[in-house]
Design brief:
heterodimer; A: about 400 residues; mainly alpha; B: about 450 residues; alpha/beta; 3 domains; seven-stranded mixed sheet; six-stranded mixed sheet; 21 strands
Amino acid sequence: MKPLRKLLDTLKPNFQKGGKLYFLHSVFDGFESFMFVPDHVTKRGTHIRDSIDLKRTMSMVIIALIPALLFGIFNVGVQYYLAQQKIIPGFEHISWKEIIPLIGFWKIFFYGLLKVLPIIIVSYVAGLGVEFTFAQIRGHSINEGFLVSGMLIPLVVPPDIPLWMVAVATVFAVIFGKEVFGGTGMNIMNPALLTRAFLFFAYPAQMSGDGVWIANKPDVISGATPMSLAAAGNTESLPSAMDMFLGFIPGSIGETSTLAILLGAVILLYTGIGSFRIMFSTVAGGLFMGWILNLVGANEYMLIPSWYHLIIGGFAFGAIFMATDPVSAAQTAKGKLIYGFLIGVFAVIIRVLNPAYPEGMMLAILFMNVMAPLIDHYIIQSHIRHRTKRALQLRNKLSVTS
Amino acid sequence: MTRIVKIKRGLNIKLKGEAEKQIEQISPVLFSIQPSEFRVFNPRLLVSEGDVVQAGTPLVHDKRDERILLTSPVSGKVSTVIRGEKRKLEHIIIESDQKNQSVDFRKVQPENADRQQITEHLLKSGLWPVIRQRPFSIIANPDEVPDAIFISGFDTAPLAPDMVFVMQQYDLDTFQSGIDVLKKLTSGNIHLNVHPKSGIPEMFLQTKNVQINQFYGLHPASNVGIQIHHIRPVIKGDVIWYIDPQDVVAIGKLFSKGALDRSKIFACTGSEFEKTYYFKTIACASVSGIVKNNLKQENARIISGNVLTGSTISKDGFLGFYDKVVTAIPEGNYFEFFGWAAPGLKKFSLSRTYFSWLFRNRSYRLDTNKHGELRAFVMTGEYEKVLPMDIMPVQLLKAIIVKDFELMEQLGIYEVAEEDFALCEVICTSKIESQSIVREGIDFMIKETN
């Protein structure tokens, strides 16, 4: 890659202090360090460093998102063709197993790609645009944080969302969710979830109800998600647990397949990037609250098996990819357990007990994002008390033994 | 009463270029005392260029406590005094006459001397600074009585010298008399800590007047800070002293022979040296003889100390006062095309984000490239994996950054030194310089508590 390196070296002086294009130096640095790991060497402190950096970390998260993304693309196609097929008399009860051989895998996938790719592009262009602008104005280097947020956003919106809404919401979330706090690492709430929350409250018609989860849905077909079926007390017409686990159900693009999400979880945990504590405790919290509601059993929704909560709606996606965002989550080991558990509990409470919001995961995570520093504060306080106690104990032990 | 401590967290970094077990005697001409190595040491020069000195002749003293001296390690003459910015004293270079004559410090039987006499003897010879204290990892205050003295009898750092091999070169009596001297200085125990996995030097087991503690686990188990934390944690008001085993021998020699002899065994290690071996020479010696004609390539960094905590020196630089290793690793001043996206079969990482995790027992030839740029704290739970202390590392670092005195105290600033955070710095995704932050915190505490 010598020619490219040479080209960059000849261009570089223009972007350095005193150069004609100095005002674009952050952008240049961003591209340069994207293509070449810089030649920076350790100056003080340790002489060697781990090969990991934020670019590698973020690209691992993107790799972990790929199963959910690919499945999401495919499922958008499946749901579209299912809906188109169902209006034809005699095909009212056709299932995804029959539609795939009928239409053909690649045709279905291509339709989904046509729907999803523009959303991905818009999300990245809008978000990175804001990132670049802010980096430039502040004169700091471009952070990698949005590489993941930009992929998360398309996965948590309905396939039929107008592109301009994606752009507006992304810009809002990146500016007010992240940049005003000082950029990646400083934000209080997860920017991708903030995007979804913005859409949810600003454009409720496009973000909720039964009409938005299937691309170009014909009006006569019900596009109800398992969530809204359950919320309506219509638990008998829920799809089979296997369909919900595999993900052949209407819903946001990336959140339907628990299986694909679990694949991502394996990658995150194995590489050591995702927090097992948060994933585990979120699931535990959801199951626990589902079980409590089973005991209460006041309506149909409360009576669904508690593990159903893990495979419907955005629970799995939220637990694996959203709650584990290290910046907005609790940062202490014990704090992570409490944080995750409460996310699970609140998500199920909001789902089942609050008729206004069919999906509780988004709000539960955002709420706990805000609460995370408080949890950490109490964990740190208890750590301090414990530290002094431990020191005195060890000392007493020593004077006894010696 | 022996204690067994199992260190569960940590990381051993395997590097290429371990020293072969053979010892060469090396007699360099130049030696340098570098007052800037010592924290809170305000030097006043006592000699001038051309003065004839012997081993033990005072070169500088501390303006705040004139009893604390840095003395010449060898006999010869003061060849140059190098000052840096603002006339800061950087090097006092001594040209050795190869006779190694010492000032005559009389022989003293530790049993017959009181604490006062022993302290004075150590101070006068210039050996006092080998004794350091926690908190803060500074030269011990002669007026204080420490609650215990710690000796780390092993080294788990990358490419560290094998202490079993090193201690074989000394005799028990000298070591024992060093211990007897130290015993007079403390009201508590002398803790001699060993690591059965990497071998226990024979003489340690025969040493009297010490408490042997067994440590198990990975680096930083050999850091004295970790050991103190697990045996007798420091809280506000406590003072613990610590010293290297080879310096115990030097103290023993001072008392039994009446002469200052700071000769030590050093290891010459690292992937960029042609020949890696142990050598015997006097502390603060020039490394030019070791480095010359021994480098595989010119673009290498010479470090006095190990790759985690050592300091960069030039090819004709000097060994540090406390150091016992010289390391050479390749410089990393190159651009790597899409380095962050490569499969990375040969890239070292604690995480499994590169495929090098497939080869667990590989030794690496690591260079000084940072492999990324500085970022804000993003990942959590990383530092905890390599800091085996009951301390919240990130929270402590943040308390230091905002200079919250009380919080720093509560989170354990008295227990840590830079070296304890070295591994945190190595594995940090955001490339944060934890050791510099800790140093800043300690400097701040020293200023505030004095």
